[in-house]
Fold this sequence. Notes:
This protein has 140 residues and is an alpha+beta fold. 46% of the residues lie in helices and 13% in strands. The chain contains five helices and four strands, in the order ααββαβαβα. The chain has helices at 4-13, 15-23, 59-75, 95-109, 126-138, and strands spanning 32-36, 44-48, 80-83, 118-121. It has a two-stranded antiparallel sheet. Strands 3-4 form a two-stranded parallel sheet. The N and C termini lie far apart (30 Å).
Amino acid sequence: MGAGVAGAIAGRGGRGIEAEAIRQGPIEIGSAVVTGAGSLAAKHVIHAAAMGQDLATDAEKIRAATAGALRLGEELGLHSIALPALGTGVGGFSPDECARIMVAVARERAGADEAIALIRFVLFDERSYEAFQRALAEGG
């Protein structure tokens, strides 16, 4: 958890989050695990695997990780969830393609019986923000 979103979570919430996640790993691509949130203003942190040890990702891995995180959030009975743009940092995946995939998965899950009421896309930069704005406006 040294870089990107994972590094930010550990840096802000405490290294206990990282230790708890490591105890549950490794996990398969598309799987997700939950840890406490340390000193973050949240109840949980859901860790979804969007890339393997080679730090490479693709559309299917991002789709699976997004669905896995949302499914676990639903199982936990969460009302809201915040998701970063998976794979667009170290993974080098296109923010535009990532946005289209993640928005589409969120819309697919929205009809589920135990759907999360609020999904926030929490983004690091203007390029990602604009990509998600376009994906939302285009319908996924």
